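Hello forum,

I keep getting stuck at the same step: I have a sequence, I want structure tokens, and every attempt I make locally crashes halfway through. Rather than fight my setup again tonight, could one of you with a working pipeline run this one for me? It's a single chain of 123 residues.
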Amino acid sequence: IFFQRKIGWKVWAAAFTALVGTCLLCYDGSSPNQGDALCVLSAFFSAAYIIRVGDFAHRFEAAPLTAVSFAGVSIVTVLWTLVQSEWSLSTALPKTSKVWAMALYLAVGVTAIPTMLQTWGQK
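Reply #2:
Ran it on my machine without issues. Output:
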């Protein structure tokens, strides 16, 4: 039972296959390390997020649901970045327009749009 629902064997088989795939992507010939564990942990939380989005996608429109999700993630990310840069905006912010463009592309093109499409698809 996961999130108060019974998970069928096909989903467990798919989850195991995804776990094996994640491990294969992490494997570089060396023994497992902290980065490998973080990749597996990230895959777990990504799967949990997808399951939870499926629960909420039926009750809310995709764009507002994605916006609220991204607002929460953005707040945590900004705080983490400021802590890592010792609360210095000059250290935390990108220095060139090229880096700003890459950040915008990652935020919108690779994250926001695919996540909104995924949420829409889970309706």
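The radius of gyration is 18 Å. If your local run keeps crashing, start a new thread with the error log.
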